[in-house]
Amino acid sequence: MRYRLGVDVGGTFTDILLIDQDSGRTFRAKTPSTPHDQSVGVLAGIEKACAEAGISLAEIGQVLHGTTVATNAILEGKGARVGLVTTAGFRQVLQIARSFVPGGLAGWIIWPKPEPLAALEDTVEAVERVAADGSVVTALDEESLRISLRRLKGVEALAVSLINSYAFDGHERRVAEIAAEELPGVPISISSEVLPEMREYERTITTVVNSYVQPQVARYMDNLATKIAGGGVDGNLYVLRSDGGLASAAAAAAAPVNLLLSGPAGGVAGATWVAEQAGFPDFLTFDMGGTSTDVALVQNLQPRTGRETKVGDLAVRSASVDVRTVGAGGGSIAHVPELTRALRVGPQSAGAVPGPAAYNRGGEDPTVTDANVVLGYLPTQLAGGEIVLDRDRARQAVQRIADAMGLPSAEAAAQGIVDIVNENMFGALRLVSVQQGFDPRDFALVAFGGAGPLHANALGRLTGSWPVIIPPSPGVLCAYGDATTSLRDEAARTHIRRFSRLTDAELADLLAELAETAAATLEAEGIDRAAQTVTYQVDVRYHGQGFEIPITLEPGTGLDALGKAFDAEHERLFSFLLGNEHELVSARAAVSGPRPNVQPAALAEGTEDASAAVTGTHKVWVEGGWAETTVYDRSKLLAGNIVQGPAIVVEMDSTTLVLPGHAAFAHESGCLLISPVEA
């Protein structure tokens, strides 16, 4: 079976990309998402892609899936009722938390503290105690534990997080055994497996979140596997992790906390693939969909990853690509509040149902998509003709904004909507670049998602990031990322030692042991040890500091070199160094399988003349007035063709706008590279 299939389920569309691994040829499908049961939209998209390729579903060898099920369960508050077992005296660990209030100095006045995902009445205490060095101070009282667990009848999942269990997990494992007897059928998560690291609150909240989303994710995985198998797919199902690697469906269902940024991670993985083909190792990613925009920074083809994953107000300790999200998408609703009379765009979204007014499905609120229709940037058909846009309805919706603000025309209002949403997305790009100590002018900008190429040129002007890279099939690039990603697993452990009390050999042994644990997981999936790649990361701090910095290191790196690497990163982030001794806090080993054998497609050679791809002309609103613009069919562009702005480049899943004073170069990899004409 030589076909790999990537699936990405978004808030508005479900994207499918079918890849012939031998030739690199791709087949795309884009169908509306089905929020009531995402597997329905997934199967419909798979059938559509296979029909286009002329193959049966049985010829698909692997289905690789990026999902938002875990994320949505948290954002919508629709997870399981979770019971929690803590050490006696620590029952209110979730209520105390870290006493951090988001916002300004007065944030505590206006911030409604969210309710813990495990209610206090569903939290019980276990009489036991383990010291920080792993020694048992108080043995587990099993009889009192059984009595306490019987109070938790009705919980749908159970989390166990005992003090210092990262140093000794025997008590947690025994609690899980007893809980399985007292609460049969209830899935159980223990913190020494989910996050075997220090800090009781972070370890507890991460374990609780794992339990909170576990039943829903497990049901979804089982339902999806059943649906695609029933449809004729005989291949294995894999799910994208937040850190950009793949996990088997069973592993994903067991540790769903690792899937919270599964969807956005697929986009970063896909962007890395295409940027490598185009020859740009350093770039920013800009993924604009129908509901939100995700941005990230990639340096030397390595996405920046963090140890904290944020979903809404919730932060858990789980490795993830450092993606920032803003509520700005094609479906973002424009409105004028009565109090300020100032135009606002988002974060509310029209979603897939009813969608923008232009969709003619009952939506009446003006959206970013409607503004682009009014300005002439969008064709009348999207997703290969599956969605037909109604220009009159779009204009009527946007005219309400013009009337509310006293603007002279719907075009002026539409331009304001587009300008504001561009500034919102520019702010997100600054979060991953300027605020992290990087100059965006040193990076290219990879734009994708259904709406990304439409706004990409404007974002390039705001950031100074050139060229702006528009990948092939930008609307389904997240699915491309899913299909070009390798299996991955990670093992971690807290090991607090000052460098003076640690040797190079002890550090090497610790990392080797963690690598062995992660490698065994991949070996169980059929990945031979010789084909595995291992990367190491350690958390280091100055002795006495309350936080640490993750440092990536090569095998064989000694403590002296590690200390210098930490100093360099500390100075880059904070512009100062301390004289305190270095201290190791935690260590991790991530093991990845081989990259899939997917051959990149290549454009046929052409000249600078792109006239063969011209399909006509169209009027668009640019620089305050209407201008006659050339429309190009992207599928007819050849390598070396140059498209002068203003221009519109259309394809099945997206539309690219080239602004005046800019030009798009068709690269042999199939990417469009947009730059100012003088460049």
TrEMBL record:
Q: Name one GO cellular component term.
A: cytosol
Q: Which GO terms describe its molecular function?
A: 5-oxoprolinase (ATP-hydrolyzing) activity
Question: What is any one GO biological process for this UniProt entry?
Answer: glutathione metabolic process
Residue span, Hydantoinase/oxoprolinase N-terminal domain: 4-182
Domain Hydantoinase A/oxoprolinase residues, every copy: 203-489
Q: Where is the Acetophenone carboxylase-like C-terminal domain?
A: 506-661
Q: Which residues form a coiled coil?
A: none
PANTHER family membership:
5-OXOPROLINASE RELATED, HYPOTHETICAL 5-OXOPROLINASE (EUROFUNG)-RELATED
Q: What is this protein's record name? A: N-methylhydantoinase A
Query: Lineage of this protein's species?
Result: Bacteria, Bacillati, Actinomycetota, Actinomycetes, Streptosporangiales
